[in-house]
């Protein structure tokens, strides 16, 4: 009989913390705790959220009656460590140092690896991250920005994009590596990945002001005006950064990062909310159109996923604009928790070797 491994998965996102325990691929529980703009806005640095997020994990395990000692491994969503190839990485001291500093930037996912490591160390069990946000498979052409000092970087949602790519491929009767997909993850951050035969060869940097605006980020901005703002003397660097990530996008225009709240306002006749929300769909559609040109039009399907993809009216706006490129398939929510667990199981069952972060 196959051994059963009990795995705790921890996934801190910009607008939520997701916690799950699996016995092999069977979910014991999955819990999503949403965080409003006001709550998240109270923290000036990502690391300041450490206790807030860790207590949520520990309390949820208690509430669900899961004994910590029954766990065989812990996996966290990997954050802004150095760029790596996709795969499952054992967490080590070096990774923790890099996640704490945020060598590639600040994002809630940095805490995923750190919390996983702390809990695993207490229990003397292994800790991993799988397909962290900095997985880098970009082609050289995609790295050129127009200013040599600022190369384009890959910071996005590879864990969910690849999981959804595998799902769509199975539905189409083949393997992820056989298709060309444009995959839009519509979460707190928004990324549109160009997946060519199983590699993300281009993607907007969802964290550093690149691509569409999102529920909590400004996305790409006219740089001249941004430079003027930076040198106006009115803002500190930290304040400007917060306007780009955290208090940007829907939060800046509408005071909320929650698509469901915006749906309600639109239903109640709020025309301004509709304009802003539709503008987000418009920018996402433009980015998908750009991705189609990267693939020279050879697109098998466009996949929409992430929390905002639950909203049928929102996905209809996108379908209307990009449906001429390829069929649009919608996968609301995310498949990150099972993808994290599957990454660990592949290593524990010897199907794949664990990668070493250095
Ligand atoms: N039913 C829904 N309709 C519209 N937006 C939704 C819905 N459910 C979740 N969202 C939005 O999706 C975003 C969160 O998506 P998610 O993929 O969970 O991202 P994150 O990892 O950043 O927490 C939030 O802006 C949330 O308000
Ligand atoms: C580093 C980009 C990943 C991202 O934006 O994730 P969330 O949407 O979960 O914040």
TrEMBL record:
Its EC number is 2.7.2.7. It is found in: Cytoplasm. It catalyses: butanoate + ATP = butanoyl phosphate + ADP. SUPFAM superfamilies: Actin-like ATPase domain. It is an enzyme of class 2 (transferase). InterPro entries: Aliphatic_acid_kin_short-chain (IPR000890), Aliphatic_acid_kinase_CS (IPR023865), ATPase_NBD (IPR043129), Butyrate_kin (IPR011245). NCBIfam families: butyr_kinase, PRK03011.1-5. Belongs to the acetokinase family. This is Probable butyrate kinase. It comes from Lutispora saccharofermentans.
